[in-house]
Write a structure and sequence with these properties.
With about 130 residues, the chain is of the alpha+beta class. The protein has 2 domains: about 1-30; about 35-125, no CATH class. The protein has helices at about 5-30, 80-85, 90-105, and strands at about 35-45, 45-55, 55-65, 70-75, 110-115, 120-125. The chain has a 6-stranded antiparallel beta sheet, covered by helices on one side. A hairpin with a 3-residue loop joins β5 (about 110-115) and β6. The longest helix is centred in the first third of the chain and has 27 residues, at about 5-30.
Length: about 130
């Protein structure tokens, strides 16, 4: 009988991940924390935007900018995402979009935003008065 340790290890890892995902889902539901949310901490010209999902959170440094940039959030690069945040890389775009949209909605309704590789920029909206 031939034993394929690589196949068994893959099956074990897959089962382990499925169990962990299931447990995270159940605990989040029980604790009422399954819906992502953001909180804002202001400390003068700087602060943090805190993304929370279940038991995990990411803190994004926020600072006022200059000229057209009203303020910006510092974000981990794609290569540092998982190590810095504890979230999988395939959730990065979804999380950053949610953070940017919620921040615009509650902190900067008169701004547009642009997600770059290492920052989310909030800039003055360009108003076109020409008809």
């Amino acid at each position: 009988m031939e034993y394929n340790i690589q196949k068994d290890t893959h099956q074990y890892q897959k089962s382990k991940n499925e169990i962990m995902d299931f447990l995270h889902h159940i605990f989040s539901k029980l604790m009422g924390n399954s819906t992502p949310k953001v909180a804002f901490i202001s400390q003068g010209r700087e602060g943090e935007v805190v993304y929370q999902e279940g038991f995990k959170e990411i803190r994004f440094y926020m600072e006022f900018g200059g000229t057209d940039v009203v303020f910006y959030l510092t974000i981990p690069s794609a290569s540092q995402w998982e190590k810095s945040t504890g979230f999988l890389l395939n959730k990065r775009d979804e999380i950053l979009s949610f953070v940017a949209t919620e921040t615009q909605k509650y902190q900067a309704p008169s701004c547009d935003f642009k997600i770059e590789s290492n920052a989310i920029l909030f800039t003055k909206k360009i108003v076109n008065n020409h008809k």
